[in-house]
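F.,

This is the one I mentioned.
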């Protein structure tokens, strides 16, 4: 068997990641026809089909997944070394611009921020905390952090936060006044606090799953917010039942100021993803930040499925 070239293997990895010859060709700076020829040449040399493709979709074959299992970490390691060398020549300076929700900032950015600013004295960091979804290319951001369901499919996405859970909570005073619901469907008879997702414009659905049963409850109530802190404040005041991210209410649950309901019905889902447009456009200041996140991403399986529940 003729040994395949490193460039051909790297091209295959890009196509497999983006599941698109068109987007991969744009990232690699070549034509779709040239890229297709490269993949056919690689498959011929290896004697196996790496990609299954038709006019509408591209998927990775079983043999292709086996190749990626070894190829992916190797390419990432080579890329990290080359970027480190490049930063050593150029130095890290300029402004790193990120967009994130408050929860994403607390879970992902805040833990690594001290190390970044201490290590790169010539760099500055600008974080825009918001809940609307940003077009990071048009708005001049290096990256954003959101739940996976919010991310466009042509973006590179790394899972950089732990799995999360939603929590249904109410104050002891509310439960004493209105009673404790026994089943999630009982929430239709309670005063629930809505959360409006800024990016989509619709209300956050209250989703529940246990075993093979999965459903949404159409709750109602007098209050709607687009800021989780306001939902928390009103829930603590006993104005209604809240449906929030577990980390946002963990302290209040531990103190007894909030009571958690239906914990068995709110299983984990993939948490936050860092997303950015292309490694070929990566600035040294962003590459340095990404280096701090990579160990976190590796430990949290960056290829995990994207989230199906969102609050940002």
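My design for it:
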């Amino acid at each position: 068997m003729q040994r395949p070239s490193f460039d051909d293997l790297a091209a295959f990895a890009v196509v497999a990641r983006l599941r698109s010859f068109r987007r991969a060709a744009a990232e690699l700076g070549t034509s779709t026809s040239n890229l297709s020829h490269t993949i056919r040449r690689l498959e011929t040399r290896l004697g196996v089909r790496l990609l299954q493709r038709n006019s509408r979709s591209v998927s990775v074959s079983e043999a292709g997944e086996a190749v990626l299992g070894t190829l992916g970490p190797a390419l990432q390691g080579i890329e990290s070394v080359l970027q480190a060398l490049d930063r050593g020549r150029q130095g890290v300076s300029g402004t790193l611009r990120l967009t994130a929700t408050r929860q994403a900032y607390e879970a992902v950015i805040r833990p690594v921020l001290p190390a970044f600013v201490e290590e790169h004295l010539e760099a500055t960091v600008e974080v825009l905390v918001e809940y609307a979804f940003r077009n990071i290319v048009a708005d001049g951001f290096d990256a954003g952090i959101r739940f996976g369901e919010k991310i466009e499919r042509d973006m590179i996405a790394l899972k950089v936060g732990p799995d999360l859970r939603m929590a249904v909570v109410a104050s002891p005073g509310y439960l004493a006044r209105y009673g404790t619901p026994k089943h999630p469907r009982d929430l239709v008879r309670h005063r629930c606090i809505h959360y409006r997702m800024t990016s989509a414009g619709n209300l956050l659905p209250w989703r529940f799953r246990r075993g093979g049963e999965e459903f949404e409850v159409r709750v109602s109530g007098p209050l709607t917010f687009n800021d989780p802190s306001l939902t928390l404040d009103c829930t603590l005041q006993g104005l209604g039942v809240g449906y929030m991210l577990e980390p946002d209410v963990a302290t209040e649950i531990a103190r007894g100021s909030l009571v958690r309901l239906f914990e068995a019905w709110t299983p984990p889902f993939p948490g936050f993803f860092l997303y950015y447009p292309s490694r070929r456009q990566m600035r040294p200041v962003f590459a340095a930040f990404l280096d701090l996140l990579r160990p976190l991403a590796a430990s949290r399986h960056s290829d995990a499925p994207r989230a199906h529940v969102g609050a940002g």
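Residues 301-312 have pLDDT under 50 and may be disordered.

Talk soon.
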